[in-house]
Design brief:
This protein has 6 helices and 8 strands.
């Protein structure tokens, strides 16, 4: 009898472990290229999920908006399966998202919307997919100027957080506040050198005129980023 009880307890423990590792949910919000919010199909609170094994551009850096849009087009409003593996340092659930049999984490890297995550000397689980995307010049690999998020944060600091659900809007100010574009002196040489890292023609022109080592004027006519920002 004791032997049967031990077997039963082991079986229940295995079932519980498997259930804890797999989640069926609906994607209710996409925060950026590698994080989103889930509503479990079973009872439970909303879950913030960080896609495990990939690193997408910060939302405020070049290709950040495109990466977010790509993830939204794949899964927003969809019912997905998630294989969870724990939590990150910010308390978010880590996991791999599947739409049917499609590995969404892997797809984002294959299409050039994210990198395979680096762990010191380990180049992560999707390094082969990343190399393929780079060879085919897909997504953020098109102009060769993509900067990994950790390098972007080191040079520019983090973007303003957009990972939590939006709270109620604060009261409107009593009087409108005039907003003026930043002065040219607001720019500074911060290590950015490519057109994909610029936000306007004015910014690209300032960098070309003031910063060493920039690569924004291939035909050397004094006009930078003619394809992206300073179009004739």
């Amino acid at each position: 009898m004791r032997f049967l009880w031990i077997i039963l307890m082991c079986f229940c423990g295995m079932a519980s472990s498997q259930a804890a590792g797999m989640l069926q949910a609906k994607v209710t919000r996409v925060t950026d290229g590698d994080s989103l919010w889930l509503e479990p199909l079973a009872a439970g609170a909303p879950i913030e999920l960080r896609l495990e094994g990939i690193d997408a551009p910060e939302i405020c850096q070049a290709w950040g908006a495109e990466a977010k849009q790509a993830l939204a087009e794949l899964v927003l409003g969809q019912q997905v399966s998630v294989k969870t593996v724990g939590r990150d340092v910010h308390g978010r659930t880590l996991g791999t998202v599947y739409l049917g049999t499609q590995n969404i984490n892997k797809t984002l890297v294959q299409e050039g919307h994210a990198w395979s995550t680096r762990y010191k000397y380990d180049r992560g689980p999707y390094v082969a997919d990343e190399r393929m995307a780079r060879a085919l010049s897909r997504g953020l690999n098109r102009d060769g100027g993509a900067v990994m998020p950790r390098d972007f944060r080191r040079l520019n600091g983090p973007c303003l957080s957009d990972s939590a659900p939006q709270a109620a809007a604060p009261p409107a100010p009593l009087a409108p506040v005039a907003v003026t574009p930043p002065a040219r002196t607001a720019y500074r040489c911060d290590g950015r050198t490519y057109c994909s890292q610029m936000r306007s023609c004015e910014e690209a022109t300032w960098f070309l005129q003031h910063c060493p080592g920039v690569k924004m004027d291939g035909n050397r006519d004094g006009v930078p980023c003619e394809k992206q920002w300073c179009r004739p």
